[in-house]
Amino acid sequence: QVQLVQSGGGLVQAGGSLRLSCAASGHTFSTDAMGWFRQAPGMEREFVAAIRWSGSSTKYADSVKGRFTISRDNAKNTVYLQMTSLKPEDTAVYYCAARRLFITTTPGTYEYWGQGTQVTVSS
Prior knowledge:
The chain has strands spanning 2-8, 10-13, 18-26, 33-39, 46-52, 58-60, 68-73, 78-83, 92-99, 112-113, 117-122. The chain has 123 residues and is mainly beta. Helices cover 0% and strands 53% of the residues.
């Protein structure tokens, strides 16, 4: 089993920045890729960004490219999502997730999930 514990998030004005963290514990060796997803009220969960624990492979949703940066600290088993130039449409509950093998953008392919953290961007 893998446990994912999220921190960060909160309320920020449009144009501001926030950083989310996701600390993994347990059988982390069984995971290869980490992703961030978000879900706004009444909407489906959508892909935001993903990274592999090894190598330099990352992937971003078009809506966040150039504004969000995903990174990792292997020594801490932690993945980060640095969010800048935030917009009201970025308001959602953000989730980190983990899976084996390669990066995907489909939520259903991730095996482990964090508890979610609210990000609210005011206009």
